[in-house]
Every structure is written in structure tokens, then in C-alpha cells.
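Justification of computing resources. Each target in the renewal requires a structure prediction run like the one illustrated here; the chain below, 148 residues long, is used simply to show the kind of job we budget for.
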Amino acid sequence: MNASEMATNLEFASKIATVVNLFKFEFPDARSDLKPWKNDPQTRELVDPDSIDIGFHFPGISKSWQSRSILIQIRFYQDPVNDARRAIGVEVAGFNHLGEQWRLSTVENWSFVGASVPSSQVGEKLKQFCRQTLEVFNNNSLSDNYSQ
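Resulting C-alpha cells:
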């Protein structure tokens, strides 16, 4: 879901803002987009209600990124036994005018796949950003503060 829709309370909104600031600290040229998805019926069918989606756009195509836009999805899991909700992974995809160029998933093996992957320097910074993002959402009691 769009990050702007998931900011349902002050603590959760602060965590989303922290993630945006972490990304912009590493990549200051990026412009954040808290509403990367259109609000139409076809798009709404595809949106994962157990994720926070944030877009970032660069002023032009970045050779080190091999893309112009980045979509970040922070995925959550609600444990039915203890009702705890935690971040379980981050999915990142890079896009240009030809469509998706690469993808990174922390749920699997933390490796880039795609036609054109980012430089190793950008890749390492992005993996560090993913680790920090998981820490932001899992360090405090997210289950007590996040509800839909």
C-alpha cells in the first residue's frame, strides 16, 4: 500500500519518515514519493495490504543505478498465534523507460537479478539501507502501534 495511507499514527508515520531519510542520506538526489500507486480499481487489486510502498525518483537515468525510479516495498507478517506484526523483508526494484531493470529481495538471497543491475557500490549501500529499514520497523513494538 502507498506509504501515505499506512501512516495511521504518529509512531508509524515517524518510522516511514525515518526510512525516507535513510534513503535520502545515502542518495541525496532522490525525490521521495509516498504515493507510488495510482488509486484506480485495477491498481488497487494488485496492492499488497501487508506492505508499505515508497518510490524514489532520480532527476535523470543514473548509470550507477541503471534506473530512474526505485520502488521499495517493506513487507510485514502478522503472527496469528501471538498477534505480533513485524517487518519480514524488503523488496526493491529499479525502473527506467523500458520498465523494470532489476530487483533485490531480502526475503531470499539478497542478490540483484535483472537485465541491468546497479553498480557494486550502489548495491552495497542499498543492502545497508535494507538492513536499517528492517531495524527501524522491528526495534520497537510495531504490533502494538500498527493496525489497519
